[in-house]
Amino acid sequence: MLRITDSHAHLDAREFDADRAAVLERARAAGVAHQxxxxxxxxxxxxxxxxxxxxxxxxxxxxxHPMYLADHAPQHLHELGDWLQRERAVAVGECGLDxxxxxxxxxxxxxxxxxxxxxxxxxALPVIxxxxxxxxxxxxxxxxxxxxxxxxxxxxxxxxxxxxxWKLGFGIGIGGPVTYPRAQRLRRIVAAMPLQYLLLETDxxxxxxxxxxxxxxxxxxxxxxxxxxxxxxxxEREALAAATSGNAAALFGLA
Length: 255
Prior knowledge:
- It is built from nine helices and eight strands.
- By secondary structure, it is of the alpha/beta class.
- The protein has one domain (4-252): Metal-dependent hydrolases (TIM Barrel).
- The chain has an eight-stranded parallel beta sheet, with helices on both faces.
- Helix 3 runs parallel beside helix 4.
- It is globular, with a radius of gyration of 17 Å.
- The two termini are 18 Å apart.
C-alpha cells in the first residue's frame, strides 16, 4: 500500500465541517499517511490544535497568512512566539507575501512575514511560505535573514527561482496545478528537479487537479498528483511516494 504525505492541506477549513471524518477516511484509504495542516490566522490556532490532537496523522503549523491580513494584529506576532514555545508545531506558517490580490497592504505583509521568519529561526522550525507574484522578494528575505529551512508551497515560479530556493535549502510544494497539460514550465521543473527538494501537496480545499476541476479538493486526491509526477519523471509511483514522504518527514520532524 502507498504511504504518502500531504505537505499542505487546510483540513481545518470550514469547507470540511460537514464531512471532515469522511474526508479523513478517504485520505487514509488512498494511502495519505500524514498531513501538514497550516493555520492562516490567530483565531484558527486553538481549533487547529484540537483537531490535530484527535488525529495523530494531522500535524499543525501555526502562522499568519498574508491573504488574511484584516484578521491580524501586531500582538498576534507576540502571541505566536508564546504559542510556538508552548505547542508542538511542526512549522511556522502559512506565512508569506501575496502581491496578486488587490488591496493587501504590501508593507504590512512584509512586517508580518519577516517577523514570522525570525520566529522560525528562533525556534529552529521550518517555515511554510506562500509566495504569489512575490517570489523574488521572498527569496531575498530568506537569504537576508538566513538560518532558515522550509518549503515554498504551490510553487509557480521559474526554473531560476526554483534553483535559488534549492541553494537556500528550501523545498518546493507541488499539487494539483501540475496535472494540467498547459502547465508546461511547472512540468519541466518537476520532471528535472533534484528529488530531495520535492514535496507533494493538495492545498485542499483549493487547487484541485484536472480530474476534479471546479470541485472541492481533498487530500485523497494527492494520489493523482503523485501519479502525474511519477509519469513526468519516469519513476515508479511507490519510489516517488517513498522519496517525497521521506523529504516531508525530514523537514517537519515526522516519525
